[in-house]
Amino acid sequence: MKDNSEKKHAFPNCSIRHILDRFGDKWSILIISILGHVGKQRFNELNQQIGDISQKMLTVTLRSLEADGLVSRKLYPEIPPRVEYELTDLGRSLLPHIEQLALWAEKNMECILANRAKYAQKKVG
Amino acid sequence: MKDNSEKKHAFPNCSIRHILDRFGDKWSILIISILGHVGKQRFNELNQQIGDISQKMLTVTLRSLEADGLVSRKLYPEIPPRVEYELTDLGRSLLPHIEQLALWAEKNMECILANRAKYAQKKVG
DNA sequence: AATAATACTTACCTCGAGGTAACTGGCGAA
DNA sequence: TTCGCCAGTTACCTCGAGGTAAGTATTATT
Fold first, then answer.
1. B49/A11 CB distance under 8 A
2. Which Pfam families match (chains A, B) (predicted)?
């Protein structure tokens, strides 16, 4: 009997791990927060806003956000084509929590970087 | 004149990207949340709590959290050695925001998974 | 003399997230 | 007839996060 089941982790880890699994990638959270700030955006607008994302990852990330129901995609069958992305209600409900984190980062990132520098010093000196 | 500077991204992206850079890895947030729940923990206790982390990544992650000043490390020079990890005030200040996210996940993850399944269906059918 | 216990460290390897660059389709403009 | 626009798609490649397994130091125990 190899009981490699039912004992993994008893904590609210579950939801945290879900969060990390789905939003721990490089672009999802950023895109959500941009759409939250500026509202509707077209593909190339997002591309320019972010600046250093590849077309491939922009489509991949948008598709997965769409699949999760966090972002809506509206295609206008014109030529050249126009596509508009926008947060859904679900996506919008996530925004405030992200912004809390961002706020925390703004307040504390300097301190963290200072700590890290000090720690690196200790290792050397 | 190649002006590849000063135009990257004008948004509060900055703090969000900082967050993702430092906490977007597989274990940091989880360890912070565990230490937040149970308080002081020894190395092997953490190892067992998490269940599926490797020793290597546990040390690596703890070191980086320590370097950032989010977690404190107390070594008791006994034999065999004893080490206790605990959140610092800075680490503790991050907790509520993480828990907000976790709460959001608990409420909405089911919906997200349902959306994803429906989306996959559409692709097939 | 061998084993156990703790908290690692080290060498080695895998795998997939993400990047790059070129191509697509349909139309209008030069 | 070739180019440009928009929103992708595709093939290919890199690189590093993270896993595995074995080794380290020290002492007490059997």
1. yes
2. HxlR
- Counting residues of chain B whose pLDDT is more than 90, the rounded percentage is 85
Residue A7 in this model has a pLDDT that exceeds 80: no
| Contact residues, B window 38-57, toward A, CB-based 8 Å cutoff | 49-52
- Between CA A93 and CA A17 the distance in angstroms is 19
A97 contacts: CB under 8 Å, gap ≥ 6: B97, B100, B101, B104
What distance in Å separates residue A79's CA from the closest CA in chain B?
A: 24
pLDDT > 60? residue A125: yes
Which residue of chain B comes nearest to A28, CA vs CA? B20
Phi, psi for B38 (deg, rounded to 5): -105, -5
Calpha distance B46→B34 (Å, rounded): 8
Structural domains of chain B in order of their starting residue, each with its CATH number: 13-91 (1.10.10.10)
Q: Do B15 and A105 touch (CB under 8 A)?
A: yes
Taking a C-beta distance cutoff of 8 angstroms, is the pair A51, A44 a contact? Answer: no
Contact B18 A105 (CB under 8 A): yes
